[in-house]
Amino acid sequence: MAQKEEKTVVNDIDRSFYDFRFEEKEDEIFKVDEGLTEEIVLEISKEKGDPDWMRDFRLECLKTYNELSFPQWGPSIDGLDMNNIITYIRPKEKKMAAKWDELPEDIKNTFVNLGIPKAERESLAGVGAQYDSELVYHNVKDETAKLGVVYTDIESALHGPYEGMIRDHFMHLVPPTDHKFAALHGAVWSGGSFVYVPKGIHLEIPLQSYFRLNAPGAGQFEHTLIIVDEGAYCHFIEGCSAPKYNVANLHAGCVELFIEKGATLRYSTIENWSKNMYNLNTKRARVEEDGKIEWVSGSFGSHVSYLYPMSVLSGARAKSEFTGVTFAGAGQDLDTGTKVLHNAPDTSSYINTRSISKSGGISTFRSSVVVTEKAKGSKSSVSCESLMIDDDSRSDTIPAMDIRTSDCDIGHEARIGRISDDTVFYLMSRGLNEEDARALIVSGFADNVGKELPLEYAVEMNNLIRLEMKGTSG
Question: What's the pTM value of the predicted model, to 2 decimals?
């Protein structure tokens, strides 16, 4: 009898840990009708108690949304029908808790299962947790508050002494005219975080927000606004997950980061949305003189992603670093990358990404580096590598560079390939079996990016990026 052929597969990410959900009873939730109309936008605005200027802003965004077209250049989003999306949903008991025991039982259990309380106790200066459309929990350690650091939900800040600061910054970096889903966000945004780090304050312990979309057929539209004042430092961690449903869900959040003179912000994100999610998020940072933005991005979930964090280097010697890893498995089309605008002299940017695709997954890396006439003496380096595990998968690299001055140093390197049989053979000659050799190659490929992720800070993040790299025989 012929011996069965041994073959090796690399498993997809095990998402079962995140697919638990609590069925929401209709009499315990408040939600608007499906779709997007002026009446719905006004209802959301009334629910939020918006000041007049925010209500008018929402209506203007709705008008812009109706005038703009859907993107035609990236992955198909034909399966997304806004007429079937609920843009606002929350528990009827509208109350944000400062203690875990104050949360409704099912919401509390959701975040307990994800490891939030343990992460907060062990390694975080402050935590915010959003459930569907509302922030349901927020807490900042006393020692952090005593430094003058403001970390709160953006809606509380909007109704307090920081309203003027928010009005001066809200959707100024990402205007509603930027694209259709930025306009959508401006019309129906709800929840999110506001952070202000005063001059000279180095907040060594991270802040974290966690976003959980529990309801089927719903959208989440949180807004994150962070201002790091002159000479200050902050590390902000963002985690996202959702259980899997058989209907489309939508995430169209917005992140605006303002890094002032000599300040540094490290912004770490691990997105592990379920495979029915359309992730159409927009993130942008403006960096002033001698400031620095450090992006660390892990994209492991969603059915379709359009995600390109952007750095606007507007001050002399401003810096941007982007480190990213993307894993696209069966049923996933992840279009990710980053954008950098060099608009001042002696600015620098460094982009380092790894993409892995398997089981028919599609991974596309896009980068855009623009160096204006003002950016003399600037430097940029782009390195992107893609690994396809099998013949069914696809990986594309689409770099774009627009250089308007000859006084700069620009480099780009890209590699796309499959696991090399020669490399497997070499490792086997050193004593490894085939499946261990293949698993070692894949894990090593992502290691120099994965090690930048803040694994030590939160248990649930460790689970989010634990790739099942070990091979199995069959």
Answer: 0.83
